[in-house]
Specification:
By secondary structure, this protein is α/β, with parallel strands linked by helices. The chain has a single domain, classed as 3-Layer(aba) Sandwich (Rossmann fold), CATH 3.40.50.300. It contains five helices and six strands. The protein has a six-stranded mixed β-sheet with strand order 2-3-1-4-5-6, sandwiched between helices. The longest helix is centred in the C-terminal third of the chain and has 19 residues. The radius of gyration is 16 Å and the shape is globular. The two termini are 14 Å apart. The structure holds guanosine-5'-diphosphate. Guanosine-5'-diphosphate binds next to helix 1.
Length: 182
């Protein structure tokens, strides 16, 4: 079955986004405590595809050993799943482009991992400030990749972007299914 994965810095709003998309509160545990999701969690959706919650990156107080374990687990997952249709990389829309996000996206590009961007917490800033940050980030993407990736601006608080994201996922899953049924 198709898998769609979600990843981002810890505290970026990944659990909240997953809960918004599934409509299930507490499916993915939201928490103030960074780095809580340590394992890869699969949630079956509509008896049809898997939403995959990947452990976050970028938490400060993590040992080198743990970081390396994370890298191995994530790169194994992202590069070896033929049923992985897309990875949503979550970016906090309040922040200037962060080195760690850019590095991760660079790696995805190099590995041919199909990703799209989700700018989270859009309710936290004014629309003009959010737009400015998003534009800035996409400009960086264009510098790196020569093109602007698919992207979504969301707020789990206000359900912003839910429909757009849901139809995009639906397209990815449908495409996978049409290529994998006989
Ligand atoms: P995770 O660590 O990436 O899974 O992040 P969480 O979903 O646990 O969210 C981290 C914090 O940000 C929590 O306090 C959430 O309530 C808050 N948060 C997440 N998404 C939003 C959002 O869209 N708007 C606002 N205002 N707060 C959010």
């Amino acid at each position: 079955r198709a898998e769609i994965a979600f990843i981002g810095r810890s505290n970026v709003g990944k659990s909240s986004l997953i809960n918004m998309l599934t409509g299930v509160k507490e499916l993915a545990k939201t928490s103030q405590k960074p780095g809580k999701t340590q394992l890869i969690n699969h949630f079956m959706i509509d008896n049809r595809w898997y939403m995959v919650d990947l452990p976050g990156y970028g938490f400060a107080k993590v040992s080198k050993d743990k970081k390396e374990k994370w890298e191995v687990m994530i790169s194994e997952y992202l590069t070896k799943r033929s049923n992985l249709c897309g990875v949503f990389v979550l970016i906090d829309s309040r922040l200037e482009p962060q080195k760690i996000d850019l590095e991760f996206l660079h790696w995805c590009g190099d590995q041919g991992v199909p990703f799209a961007l989700v700018f989270t917490k859009a309710d936290k800033l004014s629309k003009s400030q959010t737009d400015k940050n998003v534009k800035g980030f996409l400009g960086k993407m264009e510098d790196i990749f020569g093109e602007i990736p698919d992207h979504f601006v969301t707020s789990s608080e206000k359900s912003t972007g839910k429909d757009e994201l849901t139809s995009f996922i639906e397209e990815l899953v449908a495409e996978y299914e049409s290529e994998n049924t006989n």
